[in-house]
Amino acid sequence: MHSAYLKPVSVTVDDGVVQFHKQWDDLRGKLKDEQRLAQHPGEFSALFDAEVKGPLSEANIKRMFDSLSGALTAATQGWKG
User: Is the pLDDT of residue 41 over 70?
Assistant: First the structure.
């Protein structure tokens, strides 16, 4: 409906965003054995703590979303609101 008024959008994301999202397969592998982690809550807690203080820290998540926001802003620069 609005395509006649808006130029096509091409979004280029920063390599940091791509790298951030490459961690999911590794994390999924660490959590695959749910039964074992349920039986060893200390092991789960240590794993969780390492992730939220490292790759999934608030600062890293914010950085990734800020980068995505910047990419969308740049891609839609020519749009008029």
Answer: yes
